[in-house]
From TrEMBL:
Residues 1-19 form the signal peptide. Keywords: Ion transport, Iron, Iron transport, Signal, Transport. It is found in: Cell envelope. It comes from the Bacteria. It holds the Pfam family Peripla_BP_2. It comes from Citreimonas salinaria. The keyword Signal applies. Belongs to the bacterial solute-binding protein 8 family. This is Iron complex transport system substrate-binding protein.
Length: 300
């Protein structure tokens, strides 16, 4: 076969240049990305969570201590910097077909786009479930796993229905985050608000202000609110930080004297899953199952 100049020129163009593309929704709006990218970097734990659930191999990940259920996924991939400081040299060598950023790596979307097509898949705010669902759909479209995506969303719907059934008539709830000796409360319009709105858990104190880091509260506040249930997120445990554990922080007469304390209805959630990978399909499913189990599911 005789190679012409045109043939040689075409051969020099990366195969990805001829690949089909798909349009998806991202945190920044509609975006066109390569279809079925082969080498993928994900710099967001919620994205890694959902991609893993879809059976997508992630080749590059950030250097971070992940929730236990994602440990094997991260261990099997190459480390390409951190969430805040990607290793651009390593990324250039890897030459990914797609980079998924979001959350703490959101500020790096523009410089990462100089290396490879990059999408912002941040999940944040009080509509976490809706955003998480949208990401499942988008990734399913990108990687031609739409049937698997539909199955995951059907499982999520079923799990939420079970949780709503379990929550019915069980009283109200207060969501607390501890950080060392400090305590913050979160309402239905916060980052953890979906536990109220999607799972049917009435708020013990509906007047909490919407705050990114929750509303700082005292033990006296918790005693006055007197919730039937307290769901606890331990930030220190989530990020592997040394310090006072949530159970120690909340071990005092004021908290113990609440209805939740007296009825053994203080639930310590898997904080790393909820805090670090919030919005990932596995994260949501795991948290829902924890809450349903604690409430006592009648959907057997």
């Amino acid at each position: 076969m005789k190679l012409t100049v045109t043939t040689l020129a075409l051969a020099a163009i990366p195969a990805a240049a001829f690949a089909q593309s798909v349009e998806i929704e991202t945190a920044a709006g509609p975006a066109t990305v390569p279809a079925a990218p082969e080498t993928v970097v994900a710099l967001d734990l919620a994205a890694i969570d959902t991609l893993s659930a879809l059976g997508v191999t992630v080749d590059g990940v950030p250097d971070i201590a992940p929730p236990a259920y994602l440990a094997d996924t991260l261990a099997a991939a190459e480390t390409v910097g951190t969430l805040f400081e990607p290793d651009f040299e390593a990324l250039a060598v890897m030459a990914p077909d797609l980079i998924v950023a979001g959350g703490r790596s959101q500020t790096q979307v523009k410089p990462l786009s100089q290396v490879a097509p990059t999408i912002d898949m941040t999940i944040w705010g009080d509509d976490l479930v809706a955003q998480g669902r949208a990401r499942v759909t988008a990734y399913g479209k990108i990687f031609d796993r739409e049937e698997r995506a539909d199955a995951l969303l059907a499982d999520l719907d079923a799990a939420m229905a079970d949780a709503q059934s379990a929550a019915e008539g069980k009283g109200d709830a207060l969501i607390l985050l501890t950080n060392g000796g400090k305590v913050s409360a979160y309402g239905d319009d916060s980052r953890f608000g979906w536990l109220h709105t999607a799972l049917g858990l009435p708020e013990a104190y509906p007047d909490l202000s919407a705050e990114t880091h929750g509303e700082a509260v005292s033990f006296e506040f918790i005693a006055d609110v007197d919730p039937d249930w307290i769901f606890v997120v331990d930030r220190g445990a989530a990020i592997g930080q040394e310090g006072e554990a949530a159970a120690v922080t909340l071990d005092n007469p004021l908290v113990a004297g609440t209805t939740a304390g007296e009825t053994d209805q203080i639930v310590y959630l898997d904080s790393a899953r909820l805090y670090l990978a919030g919005g990932g399909i596995q994260s949501m499913m795991g948290t829902i199952e924890e809450i349903t189990s604690a409430l006592g599911s009648d959907a057997e």
